[in-house]
Amino acid sequence: MSFTTTQARDLINASNPTTLTPPSAPNRQQLRELLLQGQKYVDRGDFSRAIAVYQQAATLDQNNAKIFGGMGYLYVHQGRYDEAIQAYQKALSLDPNSPEFYDGLAVSYASFGNNNNAITAYAAAIELEPNSPKYYLGMGILLLREGDYQRVFDAYQQITALDPNNEEAAVMMGAALLQQGQPEPTLSYLQKAVQRFPQRLELQLQLVTAYLDQNNLEAAKSLIESLRQQDPDNLSIQLKTGQVLEKESQWSEALQLYQQAGQKQPQSLEIKAAIARVLLSQEDYGAAAIAFQALVNREPNNADFYYGLGLALQKEERTEEAQPYLQKAQQLYRQHNNVEGLKKVELLLNH
């Protein structure tokens, strides 16, 4: 997980050299008052006014890294990620040894869709504070998105060495194993993880998925029914229930459940993917192709989405259109060492 100091400096990207001119005595008093006022707005959740106050404070003290770091934090909460990146870069140009500012910069880059720069920022934070599990976790989650599973495992080992009872790391590891498509080690890991962290819902839902991957429908149904009784309105449990219905070929029931869930969370990628899967299973290939095309556009490194689009097009006898999508799926499955994914896509390519 090494990074270069040049990479870190590139992330800071300060456009102008810092001139260290301390505020005058009257300005110091005004600055203190502004910072107190800004904190009050933050405490109330009035981030827009807080930002305006901090911007005014920054004109009085352009060398205060904490002011710019605070502005970055507030920009993130408002979804203004480009401005957050600039604020954290300014903060780091003033204080390049702050792991917290690199953490904020990483969150900003990740939210802006730039995972590579976010990973580099987390690496810088780790270099500065190697005994903090949260930076390894942040990096690990981004590596998981990128399908870099070996480095996810490395991050998991670092986290558990520092904090053996870190539940977030256990969830991250479960997701990585599931995505790699290796059912037996995944099931073994998740059974132990659920025993260790019995209150962690994500691990139990991952275990349902592992049962489904091994075609152990009875175990999956038993566990999901138990979870539904505990929390019948939980959206994640409802979605996993839909996957069980899919496994039972109850397509109409599954589609209805997903569409209802989509009304509650219309931007959910997971729900949209579930609807696309069911449309494919219902042999509504035209609608499935449209749904998978939208998914590919939104997440261009997801092998399953390319496979689904290629399959839908092939079923519509649009073989030439299907080929590049299936080849892309093959490339991504191979890159991610997904053996099961490779098998199914190569069957289509050789058809």
Automatic annotation (TrEMBL):
<dbReference type="Pfam" id="PF13176">
    <property type="entry name" value="TPR_7"/>
</dbReference>
<feature type="repeat" description="TPR">
    <location>
        <begin position="65"/>
        <end position="98"/>
    </location>
</feature>
<protein>
    <submittedName>
        <fullName>Tetratricopeptide repeat protein</fullName>
    </submittedName>
</protein>
<dbReference type="InterPro" id="IPR051685">
    <property type="entry name" value="Ycf3/AcsC/BcsC/TPR_MFPF"/>
</dbReference>
<feature type="region of interest" description="Disordered">
    <location>
        <begin position="1"/>
        <end position="26"/>
    </location>
</feature>
<dbReference type="Pfam" id="PF13414">
    <property type="entry name" value="TPR_11"/>
</dbReference>
<feature type="repeat" description="TPR">
    <location>
        <begin position="303"/>
        <end position="336"/>
    </location>
</feature>
<dbReference type="InterPro" id="IPR011990">
    <property type="entry name" value="TPR-like_helical_dom_sf"/>
</dbReference>
<dbReference type="InterPro" id="IPR019734">
    <property type="entry name" value="TPR_rpt"/>
</dbReference>
<keyword id="KW-0677">Repeat</keyword>
<dbReference type="Pfam" id="PF13432">
    <property type="entry name" value="TPR_16"/>
</dbReference>
<feature type="repeat" description="TPR">
    <location>
        <begin position="99"/>
        <end position="132"/>
    </location>
</feature>
<keyword id="KW-0802">TPR repeat</keyword>
<feature type="repeat" description="TPR">
    <location>
        <begin position="133"/>
        <end position="166"/>
    </location>
</feature>
<dbReference type="Pfam" id="PF13174">
    <property type="entry name" value="TPR_6"/>
</dbReference>
<feature type="repeat" description="TPR">
    <location>
        <begin position="31"/>
        <end position="64"/>
    </location>
</feature>
<feature type="compositionally biased region" description="Polar residues">
    <location>
        <begin position="1"/>
        <end position="22"/>
    </location>
</feature>
<feature type="repeat" description="TPR">
    <location>
        <begin position="235"/>
        <end position="268"/>
    </location>
</feature>
<dbReference type="Pfam" id="PF14559">
    <property type="entry name" value="TPR_19"/>
</dbReference>
